[in-house]
Specification:
By secondary structure, this protein is mostly helical. It has 10 helices and no strands. The chain has 3 domains: about 1-80, Alpha Horseshoe (Serine Threonine Protein Phosphatase 5, Tetratricopeptide repeat), CATH 1.25.40.10; about 85-135, no CATH class; about 140-160 and about 190-220, no CATH class. The protein has helices at about 1-15, 20-30, 35-50, 55-65, 70-85, 90-100, 105-115, 120-135, 150-155, 190-220.
């Protein structure tokens, strides 16, 4: 009842003086009361006289969102943000517009901008967390043909260790003397079929490893 009385008082003030800036307060009270159409009419009438009244444009944009006139709402809020880039209500309004359009990446960007201005807002924190899970799935280790990165490394070096790293330029003094060479051990002779199979497995593992590295480097991180 008190809210209705306040709206009636403001309505009378604006009717008595159509140029009064009380139109902005009246429009906001109407929006909060769910009287969106009258809020829109009140804002537009007042903005025709006071076009630079940014809070009234925010009210107009938010009321237009409620009646799902999203293009007009976005236009009004973008006008506000050109003059006041950190207007929290306008940023949240844009975020809601993108959310309603199911443009989740754009919505997430706007909600994060709003959260940067209102760091302790639990509703914003929850919304950002929920959208981030949908837009940015957790980074996972990619596998090629069913092999994990570790499995491919194991397969690649199964038949011998990786080559030793070259000596660095900071090494001082002559290298230590090499130990005496042991007597040559008998070398097992492998059949051509075994050698060929081994080489093929190494090549295939190397190709899988390089493909997976390329995918992992180009995949956006969470």
């Amino acid at each position: 009842m008190a809210d209705n009385q306040r709206i009636d008082d403001l309505r009378r003030r604006v009717q008595k003086d159509p140029a009064s800036i009380a139109f902005a307060q009246l429009a906001e009270e109407l929006r909060r009361a769910g009287q969106f159409e009258e809020a829109i009419e009140t804002c537009r009438a007042g903005l025709a006289i006071h076009p630079g009244y940014l809070s009234a444009r925010v009210t107009l944009g938010r009321a237009l969102i409620e009646v799902n006139v999203l293009d007009d709402a976005q236009a009004e809020l973008e006008v506000v943000l050109k003059s006041a880039p950190e207007n929290l209500a306008a940023i949240r309004g844009l975020a809601e517009i993108f959310h309603r359009r199911e443009d989740l990446p754009a919505a997430l960007a706007q909600y994060r901008a709003a959260l940067a201005l209102a760091k302790n807002d639990p509703d914003l924190q929850q919304t950002v967390a929920e959208l981030a899970k949908q837009v940015e799935p957790p980074h996972t280790t990619h596998a090629a043909d069913g092999l994990s990165m570790q499995q491919m490394e194991n397969e690649l070096f199964k038949f011998g260790p990786p080559p030793a790293a070259p000596a660095t330029a900071t090494q001082v003094g002559p290298p230590p003397p090499a130990p005496p060479a042991p007597d040559p051990a008998p070398v097992a002779v492998q059949s051509p079929e075994v050698v060929d199979t081994t080489a093929q497995r190494q090549v295939a593992a190397l190709e899988q490893f390089l493909d997976a590295v390329h995918v992992a480097r180009t995949q956006p991180r969470a």
